[in-house]
Amino acid sequence: MDIIGERWALPVMRELMLGPRRFGELKASLHGISANVLTQRLEGLEAAGVVRRVRLPPPASVQVYELTPWGCEAGPIFQAMGRWAAKSPGHDPTRPFSAVSMMLSFRTMMDPARARDLRARIGFRIGEQSFVLGIGEGGVTIGRGASDGLDLTFTGTTEALAAAAYGGVPLRDLEAKGALSIAGDRRLAERFVTLFPLPAKADAPG
User: Fold this and answer.
1) 191-197 CB contacts, 8 Å cutoff, 24+ apart
2) How far apart are the first and last CA of the chain?
3) Is the pTM of the predicted complex or chain greater than 0.85?
4) With bands split at pLDDT 50, 70 and 90, how would you rate the model's confidence at 138?
5) d(CA 9, CA 6)
6) Is residue 34 classed as helix, strand or coil in its secondary structure?
7) Between the CA of residue 2 and those of 39, 48, 191, what are the distances in Å?
8) Which one is predicted more confidently, 169 or 57?
9) 13, 71 Cβ separation under 8 angstroms
């Protein structure tokens, strides 16, 4: 906790789990954080050896922040915390997600037993961000960017994806509202949103 216990440190690390981000991208994904606080958290994590600054090669030639190899090793910690937090009596699966949070939640909450015989490559277009999620042998891989050869692509908001995967809202209802569009294997889409059962809640305070 001496390394990552400052407020906003863990959310900053979470947003870097799927690759480098520019300062402005981080700030846009972390609702409520000020530029000054984000600068302080990045500087503190950099000093601790968790985050580093790098400059992308041309034609981008911009400075980005990324997790160091050691910082990336915190991935399983985030998954354990996510599974634990989902049992909170106050957990609300409809609260706003960042795009990275949404993708990490799929990796965290997927039930291996439900996905044990599934092999698929699924694309997600969330705002200006694109991801590819691979499912195989009960495990999940996630990468940034668009890709060819996908079995299925979801386009929409994180709120719509959460409503389908965690809230049980039928895909057809979200499509009718224009919150979500689906291209590709319809049966796979219907199955995909059933792979993420939420755990029983802990007892609420008396």
Assistant:
1) 191/118, 192/120, 192/122, 192/152, 192/165, 193/164, 193/165, 194/114, 195/110, 195/111, 195/114, 195/115, 195/118, 195/165, 196/105, 196/106, 196/109, 196/110, 196/111, 196/165, 196/166, 197/109, 197/111, 197/114
2) 30
3) yes
4) low
5) 6
6) coil
7) 18, 10, 42
8) 169
9) yes
Contact 68, 100 (CB under 8 A): no
Domains of the chain plus CATH, in order, are: 9-73 (1.10.10.10), 78-192 (3.30.1050.10)
For residue 21, the 8-state DSSP code is B
The residue type of 57 is P
Which is higher by pLDDT, 157 or 116?
157
Q: How far apart are CA 96 and CA 160, in angstroms?
A: 10
- Determine the average pLDDT of the residues in 37-58: 94
**SS3 of residue 124 by DSSP:** strand
H-assigned helices in 4-146: 9-15, 23-29, 35-47, 69-72, 75-85, 99-109
